[in-house]
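We now fix the convention by which a protein and its fold are recorded. The integers have meaning only within a learned vocabulary of local backbone shapes. The record below shows the convention in full.
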Amino acid sequence: MLVSPLYYEPIVNVNNKIAIPKMRKSSPASRSRDVAICGAGLALTAALVRRWDHWLNASHHHERAFPRKDGRGVEVYGSSRPRSLRDLARGLLPCLAWLAALDLAVCRPLTRDAASRFFVLHTLANLVVSLSSLPDMLRSMRDPVAEPLGPCNVLPVYMIPSLFIYHLTVFKDVPLDEWIHHILFGAGIGGAGLFL
């Protein structure tokens, strides 16, 4: 029988020993409610990602000309880098609002502790990243030489640092290793994805 980690009490470190989590008692009605909440969150996320991608990419798309290596003119490629603080805000603020809405509507009702709440939120954010980057991945697999050039979906590049920002600003008692991870990966990878 598979048991969801959502139904466990948090693990507590007592005298350098890890306490085995106790399973939360739940009725079939509460499990059905939890499944319905998860299903609604997943369905809403999947339905909105495509529209969100289109809106965000349209507001970020611009073309850049690069000299050809053979010296015969220039090649024009689309780019999706933010050109201003307005573009940056247009990318980050909706991601942060989406994470807050999911946290309030899905994560808090389903979980009993902050760690589980963050992992559920992280999973839903990863769903957005995966659904958004899937078309680019498939195109790159079909034509690995030419397809990586030009514009791409920028939603994943905004969602990842937004999740890290949200975790560090909204959750209490975030361990030092999480701070280091979020700063290195959020600023390092997120910054490289946005500006390089």
Q: What stands out?
A: Confidence is low (pLDDT under 50) at residues 1-12, 18-23. Strands lie at 13-14, 17-18, 62-67, 74-79.
